[in-house]
Amino acid sequence: MQIEEQTSSYTIALAGQPNTGKSTVFNMLTGAKQHVGNWPGKTVEKKEGIVDYKEHTYDVYDLPGTYSLTANSLEERIARDFIIKEKPDVVVVVVDASQLERSLYMVAETIVLPVPVIIALNMMDVAEQEGRMIDTKALENSTGLKIIPMVASKKQGMNDLLEGIKDVIQKTSNDPSSIPDVEKAFGPLLKEIQTKVSGYVPSPYPENWITLKLLEGDKDVIQITRENMDEHLWNEVDTLLSKNQNGILIGAGARYEWIKQVIEGSVKHFDRKGSLARQHKFDKVATHPVWGKLIAVGILILGIIAAYIAAIPVLLPGLGIMIVSDQMHDILKGVAPVFIASMIADGFLPIFGLALVILGAIGGIFLVFGFLEDIGYLARLAYVFDPFMSRLGLHGKSFMPLLMGLVCNIMGVTATRVIDSWRQRLVTLVMAPIIPCKALLIVVSFIGVVFFGTKAIFVYLALFIAMALHLFATSLLLRKFVVKGERTGLIMELPPYHKPNFKTILGYARVRMKVFLKHGFWLMVAVGFITWVGIYFPRGDIETSFLATFGKAIEPLGRIMGMDWRLLISFLVAFASKEATLCTMAVIFGAATSARTSIEGMMLDRSLWSAVQDNFGSFLAGTGISEASALAFIFAVFFSLPCFGTLGVMYSETQSLKWTGGMLIYYFFASIVMGTISYHVGLLIL
Amino acid sequence: METVKNYLLTSLFPRENGYVETMTGSNASIGRMASMGITPGAAVLMIRNHKRGPIIIEVRDTLVALGRSEADKIKVRGERTCK
Question: Highest mean pLDDT range out of A44-53, A329-338, A619-628, B2-11?
């Protein structure tokens, strides 16, 4: 047996501003050997991977894309904490060669930290197209850092990058030849403060970096330093700091000064088109206050259709499994004990098939919207809808997921992934279920017409107003109490349009599907199975099932909403699946029978569906349910938590049972409150 | 007569140039704007400025969209004819 020599593995951190092609570099390096999770305790995604090169193994961490390393966002804090505390062996800062001056800002922030830095000068092809020639050697001399020109989208430069990384790790001294001159920028105040904090700076933070950040008003650094010093000592520092105004601008100025120095003589423009040429012709319409919105909605609709088409390879088999579960039910009944037949055909297959359908939909969505993001269009969409979204306390990028919620809440929740800031993503995700999906609209309009006839239009109006209020209230609650943080107005880059990189887009869709498979998929299957148990046992008949017993037991509670046990159970079923609500209701009310004993199973029962379409409406009208009760039922169902699938993707997106559970509870109570209020209002006015 | 004056960024018409003179606002806002290239002394070109919607400017080779509340806190200098 051979004893393998252990080669130590090195750590590489990938940093860089958004839209520099950082994830393309990451994918290029790690290929399929990637793992996506969350940074511990946070809802920001952590991407890590492995690359082997010349007998060494490198752990690569894709840090969140950030424009700087301040304490103003969780993403930035995660990035800089990783660099300072985990001490990677090298930090590769990905820089956009076509936007060099601004892109180097991240380098300016990183080189003042005690880690070796390499610059991956990406998008060289774009720079060339724009008539910019960059003298890499000159830049290496002026910065003292290794610079690797790359075109990551075409896999050019990967070996050079790995070779460069290997070299830098093996060298012992990696200091850049110059760093931003903050001493000059801040004057003698800097040295004064540094002397005062010296000795009180907790390791591994470097003293000079702490001083710089104190002067820039960095909240985290201020807190860390303050905690480490006696009060009177801190007060001295604080007094000195208050002599300084707008430190962040002074620091930024020093960084741009440094950038100007290092790129001097390294960048030559020839054939330089005027600045206005940079504004792509399409942008004139894409950012137009009126046309831009129309185009955006048009593109979104096309996008949704394209997503469904792209989903077919996985969606169709899923659908097939769901439909086939009907036959399976009959087949299995002949060969196995009834409860096993039901368990497989009702408790497992339909929800498994549904989970596959959703998996396919997720793949489709991320292919299409990954494409739109890659080419740079989504930023224009966010720009055009920002004023509208800010009335809900959201940013423009939230428009797309919320609009998609109208088609299907599952797609809406999934689409929140395109939002970069975790706060905005979480708020949008939690609000997404308030938007009624098409299945819900069908259920609500059916019940509305049955009980209210033409007056139903007023019910719909009331629902719309209630929905708007719910959106406002939920947004406010979230922003005030749950996801606190400083709210800045829109400050967003409109990245240059790029040719789409299909490998990146495919990889992106693949990763998102994997994430769902790991979490949401199994949550759905588990919950689906549990509801089968609730409906099947003890006698395979919904009227005597655990669910029915439960419904009858909590009937007193249902009275406050004016709902008897049958409406109550139907309401509970609506939580699980909007599509199945009507069918399940038909069975519970005794209008029809079904051999299927699961919620999804009943939805797939074709004979049940035709019964619902034919005479369930008139049957319901004749059951003696009062208008007020019907109103309460409509409101409660409208505001209930959407289906299994939404639950699954919520968990998959947040990777947090805490958040998923919290949303369940919130929406459960919201629907009960809505039901109660509308019942009593209904009693008064109907 | 040509006069060099300080005026609001949001008063620039599309295709007008200016240099950032002062920036006010929260540390977070200023920090973020700075990291996207907007600092005192930077050259800006107004691209889109329509009613109360967010503006689009070009600064340091970057197109940046700014909400009104943020943009209103930036003053620029340039050359504008007075009278």
Answer: A44-53
Q: Identify which of A632, A4, A19 has the alpha carbon closest to the alpha carbon of residue A378.
A: A19
For A265-274, give one letter per residue: b (16+ CB within 10 A) or e. Answer: ebbeeeeeee
At residue A61, φ and ψ (nearest 5 deg) are -115, 120
- Residues of A near B (Cβ–Cβ under 8 Å) read 67-68, 70, 72, 98-102, 105, 216-217, 219, 246, 248-249, 252-253, 256, 275-276, 278-279, 287, 289, 379, 383, 386-387, 390, 486, 488-496
User: B38 and B27 in contact (C-beta within 8 Å)?
Assistant: no
- Which residues does chain A have within 8 Å of residue B42's beta carbon, measured at their own beta carbons? 256
Return d(Cα A315, Cα A293) in angstroms, integer: 31
Structural element, H or E, at residue A119: strand A117-122
The two tokens of residue A155 are: 């896999």
The secondary structure element, H or E, covering residue B70 is helix B68-71
C-alpha to C-alpha distances, A103 to A38, A120, A312, A646, nearest whole angstrom: 26, 11, 40, 38
Stretch A407-412: mean pLDDT, rounded? 90
What does pLDDT average to over chain A?
87
**CA–CA gap between residue A81 and residue A213 (Å, rounded):** 14
Give Dmax over CA atoms of chain B in angstroms: 40
pLDDT, position B83: 45
pTM over 0.80: yes
Beta partners for residue A93, in sequence order: A15, A119
Q: Is the pLDDT of residue A7 over 70?
A: no
Q: Are strands A90-96 and A9-16 parallel, antiparallel or unpaired?
A: parallel
**Once rounded to an integer, what is the mean pLDDT over residues A613-630?**
82
